[in-house]
Amino acid sequence: MRRGDLRLTVPEPRPGERGALAVEPAHDASRATSRPGTRGALGVGLGLRFDFLDEVVTRIERGELSRDDVAFFEVAPENYMRRGGFVPRALERIEERFPLLSHGLHMSLGSLEPFDARYFASLRGFLERHAFAFHSDHLCFSGARGRALHELFPLPQTEAAALHAAARVREARDRLELPIAIENISYYLVLGAPELEESELVSAVLEEADCGLLLDVNNVYVNSKNHGFSASEYIARLDAGRVWQLHVAGHEHRAADGLIVDTHGADVIAPVYELLRQAVARTGPVPVVLERDSAVPDLDTLLAERRRLQACYELGLADWRARHDPVAALGTRDAADGNAGDANRELRPVHGA
């Protein structure tokens, strides 16, 4: 049995013993927690940013932006909580025409300190007001000693860290009374001696917390290059039934030391397109978000990239359908190939991935 075929569970402790992680064969994906609804958010959407918020609202009011242009938007609640005036009204206007998904920034699921009750009260109010089906945040810690660090730091790749994070995910779910998905982050330093591979750490938290995964395929690619593992094998090891959503983004190479940095400040590159196709071929229809947070281009440029990603998504769906219903998939594969256009030019073999 390969290491990637294992999962970690917590057995019942004997009297006088503490619970410990045990290794078992990976469970059948068909028994995974059911995916929550997405309120119609499927295909490829955009992460909504203030850089183009005004233009989105203006185009909606002019009838110049529809679901054909972008399937949905993903929002960070922290940008809208405790705000009045134009910003929340703009979000309500967008929500009238487009499905929304929620993706948080400050939950700090790996921290040792108790959760911030005021933050959770505001977050719950926002999530209930907009009736989100689930909420996602990062598998990381982002604060210490009561201070926000404004960065996503990785957890130690240990059994203890997996158990701790899983307990925090369960607590967050109970506080919000809403399903939670965790996102795999990019990282540039492994904290301490690793007991687990990154994919094993993520899988352990998913199993112990019984939660979903927001799979960021660009983060998988960045980490695979910086830390020397196969991105394709990482994705293949994950329980596809637990993947509720996908993220894609661009990154940059730092010439001074050869490091690849997850900047969300460049176009998505060909190998990440290919990893997206591979992921969708395993997960089937899930929402995919294009993220852009720096060097943000004009909205038309973003929408053009979204269209290329949508074509790639359709290729992945055709592969997924071929495994589930080969006869019915023949026509959809032909249609996906015919609509692929620029996406086929983006797809290249992922050498070493």
Brief synopsis:
This protein is 40% helix and 17% strand. By secondary structure, the chain is an alpha/beta fold.
Describe the structure in your own words.
Strand 4 (73-75), helix 2 (86-95) and strand 5 form a beta-alpha-beta unit. The protein has an eight-stranded parallel barrel with strand order 3-4-5-6-9-10-11-14, surrounded by four helices. Strands 1-2 form a two-stranded antiparallel ribbon. It is α/β, with parallel strands linked by helices and 353 residues long. Mean pLDDT is 87; it is low at 1-32 and 349-353. It is globular. The longest helix has 26 residues, at 299-324. Helix 8 packs across helix 9 (299-324) and helix 9 (299-324) packs antiparallel against helix 10 (326-340). The chain is 40% helix and 17% strand.
Sheet having the most strands: 8 strands, parallel, barrel
> How many helices in DSSP terms?
11
Q: How many separate structural domains?
A: 1
CATH topology: TIM Barrel
Query: What is the tally of beta strands?
Result: 14
Computed over alpha carbons, the radius of gyration is 20 Å
- Helix-strand sequence: EEEHEHEHEEEHEHEHHEEEHEHHH
| Mean pLDDT reading | 87
Distance N terminus to C terminus?
22 Å
Regions with little confidence, pLDDT below 50 for 5+ residues: 1-32, 349-353
Biggest sheet strand line-up: 3-4-5-6-9-10-11-14
CATH superfamily: Divalent-metal-dependent TIM barrel enzymes
What sort of overall outline do the alpha carbons produce when their principal axes are compared?
globular
Backbone structural class: alpha/beta
Indicate the proportion of strand residues: 15-25%
> Could you say what the CATH architecture is?
Alpha-Beta Barrel
